[in-house]
Design goal:
Blueprint: H1 3-24, H2 26-41, E1 46-50, H3 53-66, E2 78-80, H4 85-94, H5 100-108, E3 114-118, H6 125-137, E4 140-146, H7 152-155, E5 158-162, H8 167-188
Parallel strand pairs: 1-2, 1-3, 3-4, 4-5
Length: about 190
Amino acid sequence: MELETYFQEELEDHAEILAKSRATLQTPFMEMLAAWEKSILNGGKILFFGNGGSAADAQHLSAELVIRFISDRAPIAAIALNTDTSALTAGANDLGYDAVFARQVEALGKAGDVAVGLSTSGTSPNVVAALEMARQKGLVTCAMTGRDGGVMPKLADHTLIIPAHSTRRIQEMHITFGHMLCGALEKRLKLA
């Protein structure tokens, strides 16, 4: 395949997934935004978690809320559970990798907080276990996934299912919608 063809096909595929996402995700986006806003206004926080590229997205979105996104403003309480290497490695060693996020949700989450699990397949065992723990503790559960959603929609109060099968396209939309949620949250909280 010529690189010029690859260049064009990748952007066309991205544009197609963007168009499908735009057509189907406005209502779930607004519902997730409202849940985030309610939690923050009531003194809650947002816990993000995921693996691989989804871990990077979790960390990225948490930083956008804690530091700033659109403009300088007061911090918004958020944390990415996949950034604490000591908790991750101790949890994986002592409890098994499937429990690393659930244990942190159990320790750090409280009723009214928001747990946001990111998984392109919707079946990552440690993300699923963390959403189950979040439900048990009374957190609002949110899922950002793709494909057919996997099992995560059954565990989430609010779900964004990217209408794609390609991991890279799903991750591209996760960070796009994640950025939109951060920006909209700043606006709703009148911080931007």
